[in-house]
Amino acid sequence: MKRENHIIIGMSGGVDSSVAALLLRSSGASLAGMFMQNWEEDERFGECHAERDRADALRVCAVLEIPFHTRNFASQYWDQVFAHFLAEYRAGRTPNPDVLCNREIKFKTFLEQARSLGAERIATGHYARTDCVDGRYRLLRGLDADKDQSYFLHALGQEQLAATLFPVGALPKTEVRRLAREARLPTHAKKDSTGICFIGERDFREFLGRYIPAQPGEMRTPDGVRIGEHDGVMYYTLGQRGGLRIGGRRNSGGEPWYVVGKDVGANILYVAQGRDNRWLQSTRLRCSNANWISAQAPSAQFACTAKTRYRQADQDCRVTIKGESCLVEFEDEQRAVTPGQSVVFYRGEECLGGAIIETTNAAFGGMQEAYG
């Protein structure tokens, strides 16, 4: 049975969700915490500190004197997030599992579990905000531009936003730390988590190699000159500099080498010199699986700003809806736009939604000229 205004907050064991819970508790809300375990830890998968985080979440809930629940969503995570992650890497793309985790686990499976426990709404420690205009919920950037997480939340919809609170979305991180310290929360000095949980502290290549066998192949320049061997195209992403192991080459100058393209079928990795070399530049991309937070695109063609990676500055662009995909045309050249990643659209502080990047008009981007 639902309790009026009852809220269950996702407790990650970090300072952000701890302060979000503190703020809700201080407001007098009927509140409980829930820790979500999304990955099983054993020798095969590696360590991602779930038990330590669960203990920290429990300690915070004890300080705040709120009930604590724990749920294991590892099976759902494997089926709905990790399987997709592997499939994308096998295809030579670079996926963003955080976006899918938010849509399928944190704002779907968690929301369902919270409702089964009688909650009307959920809350999280994400740096984002919402409002409601003319009956439609909007996703807004977090006020701390350095911490804003709306990019990772662009796949949410009206049902999720209507049921979600983001208590720290209007606060700077420094204020969140201060509140945690003053309330003597056990997580007040805990470092922010980085990277992907299921990889943890282990080497990315070693982890991925357990699921997708490496296939070494040729490393070539864009004009076809073989200059080395790669460990497997799945290990590399566009614009990557490290890990290429290309030493000094006669008559090549001193500029570093960067990944500029992949031929998955032929198992060839293409590299070129210079961070801003022309092989990495594009002005158009095609994307698919668009999600519009208002449930529909602003129009068949519209101007906005966009990001093709987290923390990128807003880029002016024009979006044209073409059937099941979108064409995005940028005013300025974009560097290393990567298939599998998300392009996320904004108008001012509002996140309109986003889509998955499929192709670009970079030299190795795969876009057919007839498209545009």
Task: Set down the secondary structure blueprint.
Blueprint lengths: L5 E5 L4 H12 L3 E8 L12 H15 L3 E5 L1 H17 L6 H20 L4 E3 L4 E6 L2 E6 L16 H5 L1 E2 L7 H10 L21 H6 L7 E4 L5 E5 L26 E7 L4 E6 L7 E12 L8 E7 L7 E8 L2 E11 L6 E6 L2 E11 L12
Parallel strand pairs: 1-2, 1-4, 2-3, 4-7, 8-11
Antiparallel strand pairs: 5-6, 6-17, 8-9, 10-11, 12-15, 12-17, 13-14, 13-16, 14-15, 16-17
Helix pairs in contact: 1-2, 1-6, 3-4
In short:
The chain is of the alpha/beta class and 372 residues long. The chain has helices at residues 15-26, 50-64, 74-90, 97-116, 158-162, 173-182, 204-209, and strands at residues 6-10, 30-37, 68-72, 121-123, 128-133, 136-141, 164-165, 217-220, 226-230, 257-263, 268-273, 281-292, 301-307, 315-322, 325-335, 342-347, 350-360.
Major beta sheet, strand line-up: 12-15-14-13-16-17
Instruction: Summarize the main sheet.
Output: 6 strands, antiparallel, barrel
Q: Give the strand tally.
A: 17
Q: State the helix count.
A: 7
